[in-house]
């Protein structure tokens, strides 16, 4: 690209992650320019500041401690965060179909609904739930 890297980085700062990803796919020069602009790291840092996300700030701390500089690390963190947000929204939608009485019978669902709604969970007796492992495929289409 004929643009200085600072100008390119400034232009990319106005783009959402999906658009940066699409730009990166256009050619190897654009991909290199995105990598040189540290755009993925900046996206994670910006989102961490805007959302006060413990997940993102923990991942940034981990990357700093391990001296991770590869843009793929930060792109993966962003993609994982998007997956988490999508799953939370799907769970919220699913929980709307249950009445409070039905949810009260299943204390886990009641607690989950109240936590996602920003309410303090209701104290309950000890309970245990087993969650099967989740496999997430991360690719450019995630954005």
Defining key terms:
8 helices; 143 residues
Can you walk me through this structure?
This protein has 8 helices and no strands. Mean pLDDT is 76; it is low at 120-129. Helix 4 packs across helix 5 (54-65) and helix 5 runs antiparallel to helix 6 (71-96). 66% of the residues lie in helices and 0% in strands. The protein is mainly alpha-helical.
Beta-strand level of the residues, as a percent range?
under 5%
What is the structural class?
Answer: mainly alpha
Q: What is the general shape?
A: elongated
Look at the structure and give the mean pLDDT. 76
| Radius of gyration, whole Å | 20 Å
Percent range for helical residues? 55-70%
Order of secondary-structure elements: HHHHHHHH
Query: Mind summarizing the main beta sheet?
Result: none
Number of helices: 8
Which spans have pLDDT < 50 for at least 5 consecutive residues? 120-129
Instruction: Give the termini distance in whole angstroms.
Output: 24 Å
The number of strands is 0
Question: Which secondary structure elements does this structure contain, and how are they paired or packed?
Answer:
Blueprint: H1 5-12, H2 17-26, H3 28-36, H4 39-51, H5 54-65, H6 71-96, H7 100-105, H8 107-116
Helix pairs in contact: 2-3, 4-5, 4-6, 5-6
Summarize the structure.
By secondary structure, the chain is mainly α. The protein is built from 8 helices and no strands.
